[in-house]
Specification:
Among the domains are: 73 residues, no CATH class; 152 residues, no CATH class; 85 residues. It has 451 residues and is an all-alpha fold. The chain is globular, with a radius of gyration of 22 Å.
């Protein structure tokens, strides 16, 4: 497969390290040409290396490879198989839940890499078939599902969403998974009085699966997040709810942007605003998917299209009113969130002054006590932009506020912000500037709590 890919051993090593970095597999940062040569000569890659190598070669060849394809024994669990769009939704949910709540099997899932091949969305006929499949769900032996059960799932989504917004994805995800894979999975196999009730339950389940994925994404567990997002899309398709599907595709685009897969991110973002996914969404949700679409355009160098998308997102949010006409899943998206994402888009197009202005607006308008995690991330990003403009002392002041907000937050994104502080400040440490020293020490202390 390496020969078919036309890669040297050094190129294979670099590709593997890139995948390892996405998967938080820091133990493979030192993999080089000699390691690949040894593997080809017959030695077996250790730990997570086989899965990382498989994904690296899959990306180069443009098709999904399994371990047997590259001459290595397959594990008991095939993560790639679980991500297939043709895999039954409820079977995938049951298997993923069984894996994620079991410590040993979760470790196996954690060895898999974030898959670029799995980001390729199925064609239109698949969505139609999934809606038809959903209508045929239900079994006479299943429990009777009522409106109160749907409301209960929404209540749990609301509860855990607020925990995530305040404390980060590292808190309570196992509780979300347990509830999804037990109570909610049973509801999905139940009997419904009418089709609307079934669709509402599948939408609620999609929201919960999305939340499990978002929490994993926020905590840097990218492969796990990808699995839950995949199931959330399937559940939305079976609910015949295009707006919910757009909501999840937006999250997948956001993840791909953060991981540096810009072309894939734009494909996902384009899909999220396509047709009924945008048209049937409430104005607040349109603004949310629209601003991430703007970010995807920005990182792909489409500056003018990004600017137009930002204006449309602003118009959509201006048309939004809280109430029964919009889903609860967008409760968090208001002026502060729009300003944060707008700032990120401007930063990525090189407009640092504009990014600074919008990051400041986000900080000023956010209810920090309720949305603590994102508040800390926004301050971290603002400090990084200030540092890029040569305003180191001002950046340190901003980062001090970010570190204050991080107290009690367990999030991969806040950890990344703290690590970036240290990296930016490294050249200044020799100057013995007290404020630089203080921020470096505090960031180091925060990171040490997750070691």
């Amino acid at each position: 497969m390496i020969a078919e890919a036309g890669m040297s051993h050094a190129e294979v090593a670099r590709a593997l390290v890139r995948v390892a970095q996405e998967s938080n597999a820091d133990e493979f940062a030192g993999v080089g040409r000699s390691h690949v040569s040894h593997w080809i000569a017959g030695s077996k890659p250790s730990g997570r290396a086989p899965a990382l190598l498989c994904e690296a070669l899959s990306r180069k060849l443009g098709r999904v490879l399994n371990l047997e394809d590259i001459g290595l024994p397959s594990p008991l669990l095939s993560s790639a198989d679980m991500l297939g769009w043709r895999v039954d939704t409820l079977a995938a949910l049951t298997e993923l839940g069984r894996v994620d709540v079991d410590a040993e099997r979760r470790r196996v899932l954690g060895t898999a890499a974030y898959s670029l091949a799995a980001l390729a969305l199925p064609a239109d006929p698949w969505w139609t078939r999934m809606a038809e499949l959903g209508q045929a769900r239900g079994t006479p032996a299943g429990r009777t599902v009522g409106r109160g059960d749907v409301d209960a799932v929404h209540d749990m989504v609301s509860l855990f969403s607020r925990v995530d917004q305040r404390r980060g994805g590292g808190h309570a995800r196992s509780a979300v998974v347990q509830y999804l894979s037990s109570d909610v999975a049973a509801y999905l196999r139940g009997r419904y009085a009418d089709e609307k009730l079934r669709r509402d339950m599948f939408t609620a389940a999609s929201e919960l699966s999305y939340l499990a994925g978002w929490m994993a994404f926020d905590n840097g567990e990218h492969n796990v997040a990808q699995h839950y997002f995949n199931i959330a899309v399937k559940l939305a398709a079976e609910a015949d709810n295009p707006a919910m599907a757009g909501h999840v595709l937006r999250a997948m685009a956001h993840q791909a942007i953060d991981l540096g897969h810009h072309k894939h991110a734009l494909d996902l973002a384009n899909a999220s605003v396509h047709g009924d996914r945008y048209e049937t969404a409430a104005p607040r949700e349109r603004a949310l998917i629209g601003v991430v679409h703007a970010r995807a355009l920005a990182v792909n160098g489409e500056t003018q299209n990004s600017a137009r998308a930002l204006i449309r997102a602003e118009d959509d949010l201006a048309a939004a009113t809280h109430g029964d006409d919009e889903p609860g899943r967008v409760f968090f998206f208001a002026e502060a969130s729009l300003a944060h994402e707008t700032a990120c888009a401007l930063r990525d197009t090189g407009d640092l002054a504009g990014a600074t202005r919008h990051f400041r607006r986000s900080v000023r308008t956010r209810k920090a006590a309720a949305f603590t995690r994102t508040h800390a991330v926004t301050l971290g990003y603002l400090g990084a932009v200030q540092a890029r403009q040569g305003e180191i002392e001002e950046a340190c002041t901003t980062w001090s506020r970010a570190l204050d907000a991080m107290d009690g937050v367990r999030s991969g994104r806040t950890r990344q912000v703290a690590a970036e502080m240290r990296a930016i400040l490294a050249p200044y440490k020799r100057r013995n500037v007290r404020v630089v020293h203080d921020i470096d020490v505090r960031a180091t202390t925060y990171l040490s709590t997750f070691a």
